[in-house]
Design goal:
This protein is mainly beta and 381 residues long. Helix content is 14%, strand content 49%.
Length: 381
């Protein structure tokens, strides 16, 4: 094995270790408080006093076992109330109720975190990347949040582009992303949300955000609602967009339960695809839900993938009722409700994780690089 090859292998291992360890090196561990699942029924009569309010959340994946939060990926939520203010939260990764990477904002705040974001400015917008990306902004009667494990825009010219925004370049790719927004004023409120497993566009987005060339979305869910009583949503396994027209495969019209009816006490695992419900001013969509050992009281484990909900109300009783949305303990549909416990201080690129977890991951990366070097030496002999 040549010295140059050996050096490259060592450098690669070191870089992998730095990427894994450095974000957490300055973060203080916080106590394991467990998951915070704040889903509850919302009655329009118990909302905020006066004014309009809206709330939405979207998530790529969440898993609970034994009533405890185990894993959250791509959770975004937003809330806006004309009387109580605005707020937004984004969690890219949460483990055991603790946030590993996320962004949070209240009235007048904007928060952004992620890796490789500086490439956009360095290349004048030709290569814009966001890795483990989270964004939250709130204020002025609106709030929005975004998360993505990876967002890439190649071939553009916007050096100020924010990850998850429309890409005018030749190629856009997003992996495990979610978006939530909410707005309100004295005249009404509206909310929307969406999540994707993989989304791509060749040819760039137009001014309205639609793919100008050929676009693909795999594992998609979305919903929207307004205080005027309007609501809509849907989910599908695969969508292909060309020339402004979209063809979907495995849409919400195909509802599947495995086994049929999911009988309690007789099923080890129950799987449901394309679940959704809609009422005046509220909508909920779930592409895939699973229950492990379902019983009369509750399942031993449960999870949802590509799941979201929206709610909007003018503050008059009865407009939003009997609907599961993210809410606070007072039942306010416009309250911020992250599923996981955020760490203090949002300035770090990663927050809320102890050094030990990242240290183990970093050591594993070093070991992997070392193993590759040894194997290469043996082959050279």
């Amino acid at each position: 094995m040549s010295p140059r090859t050996r050096t490259a292998g060592v450098v690669l291992s070191a870089l992998m270790a730095v990427v894994m360890i450095s974000p957490a090196a300055l973060a203080d561990p916080i106590p394991d408080l467990g998951g915070v699942n704040l889903t509850k029924d919302v009655d329009g009569s118990s909302g905020s006093s006066g004014g309009s309010s809206a709330a939405s959340y979207a998530q790529v994946l969440n898993l609970d076992v034994g009533g405890n939060d185990v894993l959250d990926v791509g959770h975004s939520s937003a809330s806006s109330s004309s009387s109580d203010g605005d707020g937004a939260d984004s969690t890219v990764i949460g483990i055991a109720g603790q946030e590993i990477a996320g962004a949070h904002a209240e009235d007048g705040e904007t928060d952004e975190t992620g890796l490789l974001l500086e490439l956009c400015g360095m290349t004048d917008g030709f290569v814009c990347l966001g890795l483990i990306y989270a964004y939250a902004t709130a204020g002025g009667g609106s709030a929005s949040s975004d998360s993505a494990v990876l967002d890439a825009c190649i071939g553009g010219d916007d050096a100020e582009r924010r990850s998850t925004e429309s890409c005018a370049g030749l190629l856009w790719l997003s992996i495990l992303d979610s978006h939530a927004d909410a707005s309100s004023d004295d005249e009404g409120a509206a909310a929307s949300e969406s999540s994707n497993g993989v989304a791509a566009c060749v040819g760039g987005h137009d001014d309205e955000g639609a793919c100008s060339g050929l676009g693909v979305r795999a594992l998609h869910s979305e919903s929207s609602a307004s205080s005027k009583g309007e609501s809509e949503g849907g989910s599908y396994l695969l969508g292909i967009e060309q020339g402004g027209d979209e063809t979907t495969i495995g849409s919400e019209e195909v509802h599947v339960d495995v086994p049929p009816g999911c009988p309690e006490g007789a099923s080890v695992v129950c799987l449901a695809l394309n679940q959704g419900s809609s009422e005046a001013g509220s909508n909920q969509q779930t592409l895939a839900g699973v229950e492990i050992l379902p019983g009369e009281d509750d399942a031993a484990g449960q999870g949802q993938a590509f799941d979201g909900s929206t709610s909007a109300s003018s503050g008059e009783p009865g407009e939003v009722s009997d609907k599961d949305v993210k809410a606070n303990d007072e039942g306010d549909p416009a309250a911020r409700a992250p599923r996981v416990k955020a760490a203090p201080g949002g300035a770090l690129p990663f927050t809320g994780a102890g050094l030990a977890v990242f240290l183990m991951l970093g050591l594993a990366a070093v070991a992997l690089g070392g193993t590759a070097i040894v194997a290469a030496e043996r082959r050279a002999r």
